[in-house]
Write a structure and sequence with these properties.
Layout lengths: L21 H4 L1 H11 L7 H4 L2 H11 L25
Length: about 90
């Protein structure tokens, strides 16, 4: 079965590095972000952004609420620092 995924050439910067942020730096995307950003307030931010997803992602980045982790299980938090071997 043939793949229907289209491959695009890599976007490189002036020094040949792969740019992963090209899509978000696109002028059309930046214009839309500016338009929406001007409409966002503290009271309506959840209408424009998935703040629950963001909180989960940041929390998991720092080790909170990671699926599969039993936070009630005791763990050893004081361990000796390894000494260099001669």
């Amino acid at each position: 079965m043939a793949s229907t995924r289209r491959e695009r050439p890599l976007l490189l910067d002036d020094t040949g590095r792969i740019r992963l942020d090209g899509w978000e730096l696109d002028t059309t995307v930046q214009s839309r972000v500016r338009t929406l950003w001007d409409q966002i307030t503290t009271d309506n931010v959840t209408d424009y952004a998935d703040t629950d997803w963001f909180r989960r992602q940041v929390g998991q980045l720092y080790g909170w609420s990671v699926p599969g982790i039993d936070y009630d299980t005791p763990s050893q938090t004081t361990v000796p620092w390894p000494s260099p071997t001669a």
